[in-house]
TrEMBL record:
Molecular function GO labels: acyl-CoA dehydrogenase activity; flavin adenine dinucleotide binding
Acyl-CoA oxidase/dehydrogenase middle domain: residues covered: 114-209
Pathway(s) served: Lipid metabolism; mitochondrial fatty acid beta-oxidation
Catalytic reaction list: hexanoyl-CoA + oxidized [electron-transfer flavoprotein] + H(+) = (2E)-hexenoyl-CoA + reduced [electron-transfer flavoprotein]; dodecanoyl-CoA + oxidized [electron-transfer flavoprotein] + H(+) = (2E)-dodecenoyl-CoA + reduced [electron-transfer flavoprotein]; oxidized [electron-transfer flavoprotein] + hexadecanoyl-CoA + H(+) = (2E)-hexadecenoyl-CoA + reduced [electron-transfer flavoprotein]; decanoyl-CoA + oxidized [electron-transfer flavoprotein] + H(+) = (2E)-decenoyl-CoA + reduced [electron-transfer flavoprotein]
PANTHER family for the chain: ACYL-COA DEHYDROGENASE 6, MEDIUM-CHAIN SPECIFIC ACYL-COA DEHYDROGENASE, MITOCHONDRIAL-RELATED
Biological process terms in GO annotation: fatty acid beta-oxidation using acyl-CoA dehydrogenase
Cofactor: FAD
Family the entry assigns: Belongs to the acyl-CoA dehydrogenase family.
Source lineage: Eukaryota, Metazoa, Chordata, Craniata, Vertebrata
GO cellular component, one term: cytoplasm
Protein name: Acyl-CoA dehydrogenase 6
Species whose genome carries this gene: Anabas testudineus (Climbing perch)
Length: 375
């Protein structure tokens, strides 16, 4: 039933409008999230008492896979931020009061969430963030800024990572639930991007923003640790989502090259083409196996940082390979904005940058292999 409902929402409420939202550089997050929340898709693995379905993480990735059928990358990414990137730490470590104020309406689609981690000088290097939250009585006074904030221009609240002390960089950070309508929160601009056009991305500044200390998720000083745990789900979610899109792009390329002729025969009939598509589909299936293994271990309570990093690394590189190879077979049409393959070519490039660049994934993998040089 969940799968049928998701298909209907995508086919009736999202895909018919994707071209318009891509052109406008924004989709109506509150409207779409309310539809998804009412259908139960924004909290499938979240507690029932806060509006979730109480299922395990495999159901979240099943939703992510289905969202890969949306005809762009920006909207699934925005949904993923809402369901599996800004809320895992809150659901796992937040107080009952915070969950009621922020998690419940987010799962129901009544509030739009964003995640405030990256900054101009600190993207993949999370430990280098400069935003500070200084305790003043029972409040934090927050100054700094966040960059590349998905949902940022429409968000009602931010899961903010900030320095709450001057201690070591891995133990001085906290995650804070920050309402976006507070005095001192400034949306500096909506960022124009290479891809993901329909997803609004903001640069946000904080000027003496006051937030109650009770808005800290879990324990003060453990924000870096909580964010690293959130990254496991974020990276697995991203792989799940892009797997379906790669399947679709390969299939649509097969259909197009079967119709398009060159040198008096379909493009698909050239051995270099159908062999290459076979190779790409094989690579997708190998990634799917790695991803399912990582997800199964994660559900059983294992630390899957190594496998999630491998899947994220391979997902980003394979997406670039699939999009580039398939676009080539569309010829001149592939260089237009009228076909899904060109949109995927633009959108999928983010996979090797966002939520930890390829080089960061390699560093994590090397750490688990014990091959990093000793300092």
């Amino acid at each position: 039933m969940l799968n049928i409902s998701m298909v209907l929402i995508i086919d009736q409420e999202i895909n018919p409008h994707v071209d318009q939202w891509e052109a406008e550089g924004k989709f109506p997050a509150h409207k779409i999230f309310k539809i998804l929340g009412s259908a139960g898709f924004l909290g499938v693995n979240k507690p029932v008492e806060y509006g979730g379905l109480g299922l395990d993480f495999s159901y979240s990735v099943a939703v992510a896979e289905e969202l890969g059928n949306i005809r762009c990358g920006g909207i699934p990414m925005a949904i993923g931020v809402q369901s599996d990137m800004a809320t895992p730490a809150l659901a796992r470590f937040g107080s009952a009061e915070l969950k009621k104020e922020f998690l419940l309406p987010t799962i129901m689609g009544d509030k739009v969430a964003c995640l405030g981690v990256s900054e101009v000088g600190a993207g993949s290097d999370v430990s280098s963030i400069m935003t500070k939250a200084v305790r003043n009585g029972d409040e934090y006074v927050i100054n700094g800024g966040k960059m590349w904030t998905t949902n940022g221009t429409q968000a009602d609240w931010m899961c903010l990572l900030a320095n709450t002390s001057d201690g070591p960089p891995h133990r001085n950070k906290s995650l804070i639930c920050l309402p976006m309508n507070l005095p001192g929160v400034h949306i500096a601009r909506k960022i124009d991007k290479l891809g993901m056009w329909s997803s609004d991305t903001a640069e946000v500044f904080f000027d003496d923003v006051r937030v109650p200390c009770k808005n800290v998720i879990g324990q003060e000083g453990l924000g870096f640790t909580y964010q690293m745990l959130q990254f496991q789900e974020e990276r697995l979610w991203a792989v799940a989502n892009i797997l379906t899109t790669m399947d679709n792009i390969i299939q649509e390329t097969i259909e197009y090259t079967r119709q398009r002729k060159i040198f008096k025969q379909p493009v698909l009939y050239h051995q270099s083409v159908h062999f290459r598509l076979a190779e790409l589909q094989t690579e997708v299936e190998l990634l799917r196996s790695l991803f399912y293994r990582a997800t199964a271990l994660y559900i059983k309570g294992n630390d899957v940082t190594r496998l999630a990093s491998m899947a994220k690394l391979k997902g980003g590189r394979l997406a670039r390979e699939v999009s580039d190879s398939c676009l080539q077979y569309w010829g001149g049409m592939g260089f237009t904005s009228d076909v899904p393959v060109s949109r995927f070519y633009r959108d999928s490039r983010l996979m090797s940058i966002g939520a930890g660049a390829d080089e960061v994934m390699l560093g994590i993998i090397c750490k688990y292999m014990d091959t990093l040089p000793k300092k």
